[in-house]
Amino acid sequence: MRIFISSVQKEFARERQALGEYLSGDPLLRRFFEPFLFERDVPASDRRPDDVYLDEVRKCDLYIGLFGMKYGRENGDGLSPTHLEFNEATRLGKTRLIFAKGATDGEKHPKMRALIRTVGSQLVRRRFNNPAELQASVYASLVDHLEATGKISQAPWDARAARKATLDDLDPEAVTRFVRRSRKARGFPLPVEAELVEVLTHLNLLDDGAPTNAAILLFGKHPQRFTLPSEIKCAHFHGIEVAKPIPSYQVYKGTAFELVDQAIDFVMSKINLSVGTREKSARAPVEYEIPREVVAEAIVNAVAHRDYNSNGSVQVMLFTDRLEVWNPGTLPAALTLEDLRRPHSSIPGNPLLAEPLYLTKYIERMGTGTRDMIAQCRAAKLPEPEFALTDSFVTTIRRPASGQVTGQVKLRLESRLESRLESRLESPLAAKVFLLLNKELLGKASIASLLGHKTVSGELHKQIKRMVEARIIERTIPDKPTSRLQKYRITAKGSALLNQLKRQS
Fold it and tell me: Among 181, 244, 351, 398, who pairs with 139 as Cys (CB 3.0-4.6 Å)?
């Protein structure tokens, strides 16, 4: 089916190119759709542009309209090409999918505002702020069209209704946290007080009123009830091969955001960390042997792009010489392993799952993540990441040779003590925090900084709260829990636990 993409070309040059590449590269959509872009697909000819535009509209099966700030060059009747193309698609009864840029229309050209009002009286339109949001919305609309026309009998995993799930299986507070964070990170258009259904509708995460698989994994109270393989398995080995006994092994459950946070914390709690002096700043510089951004990119890519129809789970394995992240799935047909090392289009395997991760900056830029990893590894004087396809997609990040990490103080957890602490506290992050507090009094922000975190994560809040409740750490200002001067320290019970574990090690 031929898709005509209509817009003011100069205003939407970036979006048009990204959308054309995505439609041509997505494994599902490329089977059914062929995008038409005037600037790419029409050779020079002795015909009026308006005639060519309208002729292509007549040939198309679907019309996609991108409406923005500008109205476009007007003809003798005062109508722009975009307006003429919409009118022709309407006259011929074509399927029309309209996407308006921006949360409001007040600053748009008056005639564009009028066109958007006309569209709104005829059909449902979607809004977007950037190419990533546009891509996810177009994906959802085209999947709906394929289902409605009988071209496919079952939607892709992320767009499919989660079996037996209802809106009661979603956590409204998780949705509110997402809106608050995405507004700050990417200018998400909906207000913090937006209703749950309004947010899900905007993100295309409902199927006939029921939450999709992507909605459950992003905001579910118990996501693994509906998709057990979405859990992440993390293991730490003291050698260079998979071998038993495994010193540290964790299986993480939760939302996509929690899975990523927990897996990153697992890795960062195991690798070497150097802390410099306060010679140039009040805060000592902290440096991990592998940059946190590299670890995060490998893990979030695995969660966002894996094949959720597979019964396999994402596996994160740390060896003495390398970190491996295994992702059940493969590359899109339009990409090769070599493409990952040069500029390439973004073709997420699960667009409806990837978009909220992008909106909250878990995915920093669409289509550049692997090249960012390469650049950051080079800057850290590490070998470039390795990408391979077996029965899974595997990312390998090499660790520095023993003794290569420099710094005034090395915070390296002794393996046996670390393993025993993790077993007792049931969290590698808690073990790391506990040992940091054994050295000095620290507030949450300082703990986060020493861990290499940009902010105090929800998981860090949770682990500190659990250790306070277990009375192995305590607040230095107990009667003012939320004081900005609040710090934490090891209790007598915590010291006894640590001494006991040291003797056992």
Answer: 351
